[in-house]
Specification:
The structure holds two protein chains of two kinds.
Chain A: E1 4-7, E2 10-13, E3 18-25, E4 31-37, E5 44-50, E6 53-57, E7 64-70, E8 73-79, E9 87-94, E10 103-104, E11 108-112
Parallel strand pairs in A: 2-11
Antiparallel strand pairs in A: 1-3, 3-8, 4-5, 4-9, 5-6, 7-8, 9-10, 9-11
Chain B: E1 5-6, E2 9-13, E3 18-23, E4 31-37, E5 43-50, E6 55-58, E7 61-66, E8 71-76, E9 85-92, E10 96-98, E11 102-107
Parallel strand pairs in B: 2-11
Antiparallel strand pairs in B: 1-3, 3-8, 4-5, 4-9, 6-7, 7-8, 9-10, 9-11
Classes of the chains: A mainly beta, B mainly beta.
Chain lengths: ~110, ~110
């Protein structure tokens, strides 16, 4: 138990669906991250929120839309995804936006048909 | 380049030592990290080394840092089947930049 909970753990969606991934943290950290993990590729940083404000958006397509309504929750809204978006999406938190240990959730495995 | 690079696979026998290698790109990185990802789980910090150190030992783990060559390695002594996982190297450039991960397979 890392204090970072992601739901759902598995999601299968069609290209025309709209779905959301949720991340909840119980660590009191002030920075939250979305990473994409694809096989044999480096872990890819997608978005960074610090104090509920988006501070980084790494050229992610607009079909991925993050939302951070408060310091404990982070969402990733998905719409009109492509099969190549199938991956493991990991949420992570940290105290402070720069150095320090990242605490990861277990991930949401997304399959786009 | 901008990538942190690792070999993708390593297979060892139980009881042997494992050495996982990583090359990074930014000589100004202040910390370098090793994260472990067990099957079906997220990543967990395993150990880290400050850039002014050459070596760090923590029980069965030894981290070696060669700043000149921008090379980082993780040695696991007496590797056990429970060490089977994916190991990620990461450098800190204000944010963490991860490699592709090395899948360690430990055979009994």
């Amino acid at each position: 138990e890392t204090g970072v909970t992601q739901t759902p753990r598995h999601l299968v969606m069609g290209m025309t669906n709209k779905k959301s991934l949720k991340c909840e943290q119980h660590l009191g950290h002030n920075a939250m991250y979305w990473y994409k993990q694809s096989a044999k590729k480096p872990l890819e940083l997608m978005f960074v929120y610090s104090l509920e404000e988006r501070v980084e958006n790494n050229s992610v397509p607009s079909r991925f839309s993050p939302e951070c309504p408060n310091s404990s929750h982070l969402f990733l809204h998905l719409h009109t995804l492509q099969p190549e978006d199938s991956a493991l999406y990991l949420c992570a938190t940290k105290q402070g936006a720069n150095t320090g240990e990242l605490f990861f959730g277990e991930g949401s495995r997304l399959t786009v048909l | 380049g901008e990538d942190v690079e690792q070999s993708l696979f390593l297979s060892v026998r139980e009881g042997d030592s494992s050495v996982i290698n990583c090359t990074y790109t930014d000589s100004s990185s202040t910390y370098l990290y090793w994260y472990k990802q067990e099957p079906g789980a997220g990543l967990q910090l395993l150990t880290y080394i400050f850039s002014n150190m050459d070596m760090k030992q923590d029980q069965r783990l030894t981290v070696l840092l060669n700043k000149k060559d921008k090379h980082l390695s993780l040695r696991i002594a007496d590797t056990q089947t429970g060490d089977s996982a994916i190991y990620f190297c990461a450098e800190s450039r204000g944010k963490l930049i991860f490699g592709q991960g090395t899948e360690l397979s430990v055979k009994p």
